[in-house]
Amino acid sequence: MGRTARPRKAYRPGRVDTDPVETAIAMAARLLPSQRRMLRQPLRVAFSGLLRGTGGWLAWCAMADAMNVAEQLALRQICSDRMPEIEAAQAALHAPHTRHAQRNTWTLRPEEITALRVGSFFHFVQLNYATQGELRESILAVQRKVAQALAGNASPSAKVCVGGIHPSTATNKHASEATA
C-alpha cells in the first residue's frame, strides 16, 4: 500500500428486519387511537400551558415540534391544502420566542393563540390520516432539518422552529414509540 491509502473500515452490518413483510404492513397502517392520543396529549398540555402563560420553554418546544412535524406531513400530501395555516402557526411560535428573549415572558397575543389553535387542529386531523411510516419519516425529516439548523448548515430560506426533536432522540421502529 502506498502512503496515501487509507486503512479499511471495519465491517458493521446494517439492521436487518426479522420480518420485513410485517414491518411493511405496520408502516402502511394508520395510527391506532391509542397512538393518536399519546401524540396529541403533550400538544394539548403545551398549548394550555402557553395559554395560561405558565408553559415555558418545554411547552414551546412541544408546540414547535408538532408544527414542524405537521409541516412535513403536509409536504407528504396529508392536509397539504392547509399549509398556510401550519406556516402561520410556526410564525406565531416565533413571536413569543423573540419576546421571551427580550422580556422573559411566554405570553401569547390573541392572533397567535388563534394561529396555534388552528395549526394544532389541522395537525390533529393529519394524525387521523397519517400512516405510521409517514409519521416516522416526517419525524426523521424534522430531526435532519433541526440538526442542519443547529450545525449552521440550513439554507437561508429555511424556517425552522428548533424544539425538542434532536437527532440524538432515539428513532424507534414504530411511530408509537417516537415523540412528536
List the helices and strands and how they pair.
Blueprint: H1 20-28, H2 33-52, H3 56-75, H4 83-103, H5 110-129, H6 132-151
Quick rundown:
The chain is an all-alpha fold and 180 residues long. 61% of the residues lie in helices and 0% in strands.
The succession of helices and strands, N to C, reads HHHHHH
Structural class computed from helices and strand pairing: mainly alpha
Largest sheet descriptor? none
Our Rg estimate from Cα atoms comes to 19 Å
Oligomeric state as shown: single chain
Distance between the termini: 50 Å
Stretches where pLDDT falls below 50 for ≥5 residues? 168-180
Percent range for helical residues?
Answer: 55-70%
Shape category = globular
Q: Average pLDDT value?
A: 83
Count up the helices: 6
| Total strand segments | 0
Beta-strand fraction estimate = under 5%
